[in-house]
Amino acid sequence: MSQVQPSEEKNIFTHLKTMSECIQLSFAVCRIGIYTCFRALCCKGPPPPRPEYDLVCIGLTGSGKTSLLSQLCSESPENIVSTTGFSIKAVPFQNAILNVKELGGADNIRKYWSRYYQGSQGVIFVLDSASSEDDLETARNELHSALQHPQLCTLPFLILANHQDKPAARSVQEIKKYFELEPLARGKRWILKPCSLDDMEAVKDSFSLLINLLEERDFEPSRM
Ligand SMILES: Nc1nc2c(ncn2[C@@H]2O[C@H](COP(=O)(O)OP(=O)(O)O)[C@@H](O)[C@H]2O)c(=O)[nH]1
Ligand SMILES: [Mg+2]
């Protein structure tokens, strides 16, 4: 019987060790391949984080601020109550989350609006297009004050001429003229859009334009 020499034994041992390392490496490569295929097929990973913007929403009582914001948050219209102080809602959109602070629009609350402007990155102003002449004038004065306020004057504005479903509603052209938006808001970033609770798709489109302004992707002085 031939005896295995120590040098041959060492060779066999080295050979076995190399084989075992090769097998381990092949398994590791297979594992990575399977994991990569699994990830590609099954899980796309978490979506990228959406930017958040802090907005203030103002307008007279009854203009429809709470109703519009609640609809955008898919909340039941039955839960809507008059806003006495302020309320904050996180309104989700595909490409951004808007943290909207709605300020109550009653006569005795409006004088405190400016205390809540700090930190805002944009403004939503809602008006009732079918309101009385007196209320429309009050709304105009409030919008003018907001457009000229030092904490808001450089921010993008979305002005929603709401209640367009009502027969008495003024057209967006009439409102633009009555509110003297052209001279006052010249050079500012603002959007004036007609809307009503009946057409939330149009409301969402208007908010998308506002998000564009917030991202400063699509800058033009004014849009209608
Ligand atoms: N017809 C009509 N009614 C609306 C519209 N938007 C709001 N409203 C109604 O107006 C009332 C006041 O709305 P609300 O959201 O509380 O106004 P806010 O005081 O500005 O928050 C509610 O009865 C709403 O259902 C609209 O576009 N058309
Ligand atoms: Mg309200």
TrEMBL record:
State the UniProt keywords alphabetically: GTP-binding, Magnesium, Metal-binding, Nucleotide-binding
Q: Which residues bind GTP?
A: G59, L60, T61, G62, S63, G64, K65, T66, G105, N162, H163, Q164, D165
Indicate which residues the UniProt annotation says bind Mg(2+): T66, T83
Alphabetized PROSITE patterns for the sequence: ARF
SMART domains noted in UniProt: ARF, SAR
The GO terms describing molecular function are:
GTP binding; GTPase activity; metal ion binding
Matching Gene3D superfamilies: P-loop containing nucleotide triphosphate hydrolases
Query: Is Nucleotidyltransferase included in the keywords of this UniProt record?
Result: no
The answer to whether the entry has keyword Magnesium is yes
Q: Which family does it belong to?
A: Belongs to the small GTPase superfamily. Arf family.
Q: What name does the UniProt record give this protein?
A: ADP-ribosylation factor-like protein 15
User: Lineage, please?
Assistant: Eukaryota, Metazoa, Chordata, Craniata, Vertebrata
Q: Which gene encodes it?
A: ARL15
